[in-house]
């Protein structure tokens, strides 16, 4: 879990943003793209999602420098209908393709009610919550997931087939923070995690649900985006561009008045905040509330 450290050196977000942008430019990225990437990473830092914040620039810069990721992709829509988009990331980081797809869905959703985009041929999209938050700002319900190229062997645990992919759901509210669930499906169940065997023995239902969500990420965010089960079946110009994503947006007003729904979500947030928190926690909150407070 991401936690706010109490022993870290505090640096202003503007300074971190400039630093991240400079590193990206040094690795070959255009200034405009570098500034965009830096903004997305530092926003995650501000929310307390440090695993997907500015620390990621070290990996991204290395991938670009080694030619595994296209530093300046020509992102384009290759197929579309009134309610669907297929966006190609041209071997770049997935932030650019996924952001464009989410923005395009926001424009289309009012007319269609429910719209979906698949992005392909790109690298890491970062935190799935980046894109669900973009859509929820338009008072849309959002679902985002991503899949990637798996590397596996028959003698490995079936857990490896679940990958480590993300999911995010976002639901708008009125005056309170949007409810945003943003998580890794296999958190605490990676091969390197110290308590895997113990969790399987004590809470098998939770483990099976996590694996099931991981399998869904691979199917919906990976295979639907052209990622192959067989890693030898595809030759990629940029070998680091082995991910895809699925983004869905739903217009609340196609089902009931928006104000009524937002009012219910606000009441939901107020009532749950009055309940007893989980053991070891000092507050009872809905998903996304703490991230919203930190960012503000």
| Poorly predicted spans | none
Q: Any idea what the shape is?
A: globular
Mind summarizing the main beta sheet? 7 strands, mixed
Order of helices and strands: HHHEEHEHEEEHHEHH
Task: Explain what you see.
- Strand 2, helix 4 and strand 3 form a beta-alpha-beta unit.
- The protein is globular.
- A seven-stranded mixed β-sheet has the order 1-2-3-7-4-5-6.
- It has 296 residues and is α+β, with helices and mostly antiparallel strands.
- The chain contains nine helices and seven strands.
Short description:
Helices cover 39% and strands 17% of the residues. The protein is an alpha+beta fold.
Task: Fill in the keyword field for this structure.
globular; seven-stranded mixed sheet; alpha+beta; 7 strands; 296 residues; 17% strand
How do the strands and helices of this protein lay out in sequence?
Blueprint lengths: L12 H14 L4 H17 L9 H9 L10 E6 L2 E5 L5 H19 L1 E9 L6 H8 L3 E9 L17 E6 L7 E6 L11 H7 L1 H19 L20 E9 L6 H16 L15 H7 L1
Helix pairs in contact: 1-2, 1-3, 2-9, 4-5, 6-7
């Amino acid at each position: 879990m991401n936690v706010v450290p109490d022993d870290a050196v505090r640096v202003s977000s503007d300074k971190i943003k400039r630093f991240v942008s400079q590193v990206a430019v040094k690795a070959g990225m255009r200034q405009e793209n570098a500034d965009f990437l830096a903004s997305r990473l530092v926003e995650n830092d501000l929310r307390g999602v440090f695993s997907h914040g500015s620390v990621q620039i070290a990996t991204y810069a290395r991938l670009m420098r080694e030619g595994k990721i296209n530093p300046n992709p020509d992102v384009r829509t290759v197929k579309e209908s009134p309610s669907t988009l297929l966006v190609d990331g041209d071997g770049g980081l997935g932030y650019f393709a996924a952001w464009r797809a989410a923005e395009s869905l926001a424009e289309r959703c009012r007319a269609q009610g429910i719209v979906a985009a698949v992005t392909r041929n790109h690298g890491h999209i970062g935190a799935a919550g980046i894109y669900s938050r973009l859509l929820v700002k338009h008072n849309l319900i959002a679902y985002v997931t991503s899949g990637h190229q798996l590397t596996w062997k028959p003698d490995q645990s079936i857990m490896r087939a679940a990958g480590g992919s993300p999911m995010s759901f976002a639901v708008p509210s009125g005056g309170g923070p949007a409810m945003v669930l943003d998580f890794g499906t296999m958190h605490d169940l990676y091969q390197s995690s110290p308590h895997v065997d113990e969790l399987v023995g004590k809470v098998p239902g939770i483990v099976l649900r996590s694996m099931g969500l991981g399998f869904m990420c691979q199917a919906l965010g990976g295979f639907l985006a052209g990622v192959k089960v067989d890693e030898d079946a595809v030759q990629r110009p940029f070998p680091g561009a082995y991910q895809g994503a699925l983004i869905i947006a739903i217009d609340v007003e196609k089902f009931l008045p928006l104000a009524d729904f937002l009012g219910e979500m606000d009441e939901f947030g107020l009532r749950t905040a009055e309940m007893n928190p989980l053991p070891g926690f000092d507050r009872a909150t809905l998903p996304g509330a703490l991230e919203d407070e930190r960012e503000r």
